[in-house]
Input
Amino acid sequence: MLNRDQFSYSFQEISRRRFLSHTGIGCGSVALTAMLQREGIASETSAGKGDVPGGRPHFPPKIKNVIWLFMIGGTSHLESFDPKPELTRLAGTSIPKEILESPYATKNLRRVVASQETKRTKIYPLQVGYKKHGESGIEVSDWWPHLCSCIDDMAIVRSMWTTDDNHGAQLQFHTGRHRLEGFFPTIGSWVHYGLGSLNDNLPQFVVLGQPLADCCGGSEGHRANYLGPQHDGVRLAVDPQNPLPFASPGREVFREEQSKEFKLLGELNRLTSQAYPHDKVVEARIKSYELAFRMQTSVPGVVDYRKETAAIQNLYGINQKQTRSFGEQLLVTRRLVEQGVRFVQVYHGSNGGAGGWDQHGNLKAQHSKNCAAVDLPIAGLIKDLKQRGLLDETLIVWATEFGRSPGSQGTNGRDHHPFGFSVWLAGGGIKGGVVHGATDDFGFHAIENRHYVTDIHATLMQQLGLDPHRLVVPGRQRLEIDFGHPIKEIIS
Output
């Protein structure tokens, strides 16, 4: 064992980075930096040098948790939550000139595809029927039969718009900025940055499902950028044997061996804290190893949904092939928020490219398949949270990067459509059974109560008791549109 003088001398012979990299005890560095929840420091490049919020809301919150469901590729608003009968009635004719020349046609759009709004002008009919549902009588397409039973718990926002007409809009929905402007913190990271831990044994920002492809933002869709990697989302796998693929010690390391390594590290830590009492970076990183060790014990039990009854598993569709994968993720999501995970981001549709919801062709077959994969699990999640008394303190956001065009692409598809599309929210202080905003008769432009994507960010921040203006990092200028505005009309 080194004495204090020997250790102090030895430590001075190596760099801080080298010391930290050599004391990882088998935990991946990406996961470790994401685990520094309360210390607020991960590296010399972290924003604010540790000057982060105190982990308390700015005003009384209405919710504790957020579940963020993101459909990758661009779900058609027309065949989901904003059906337009005019498309079927006028199928094959041209979209009226006054619609194409609307004042909203070019407003705020940063094109990747030139003159996109004038290229797909032959109206393509609705590919599925629709009905009114619930006491609220909200019209939803027939591809969502299970979710329709929850419509009175949901607030549909039909007037979203964004500025990227290509799949960089996926990253834009999470950060509020066009990809051409660079990379910025995601909404999950801002929540992580602003609030403290609800459970010190679990990560506070978890990512489930395959993330965005590199073409469309990749891991930047759940990263913190200048806030520091300690606020990145931590990816978990729905696998009780290996739920932390990026932070496990490896099969060759026995639990007893790792425990002894941590004990040794603890002794070194005490010497380090005495030799470098003011080095907050080292102090925070050291604490992260202890949290990593606790997570390796805690996370597998939370992820192991097999402990749930057959009835609960069936509620999420785990007993059916087409819904099993997404159902497993959403049941684990419920278990995570139940144990105090603040923000769970769940992806659906990642396919290594633009996304499984990107139907330029064969829309009817592919959209009906995608809806069938997620409809029952999402409805199960809402019902399960509600019966456990968790829906009131959990906000669910369902989103996609943009909608699909009312005009046809080829013979049986729809193009990207950033001019007007739909998202919905449920739970957590949100009015149920309401529709907010509207598109025109063709579903082309958002024309009433228009909302840029950061208005969704602002709404969930409001419910969490956070003022985004008070989270600004010194030296980092944010645009007014970055903050968004809470959608007060849907907040109860």
Summary: Residues 35-240+304-471 form a domain with the Alkaline Phosphatase, subunit A fold (CATH 3.40.720). The longest strand covers residues 154-161. Confidence is low (pLDDT under 50) at residues 1-51.
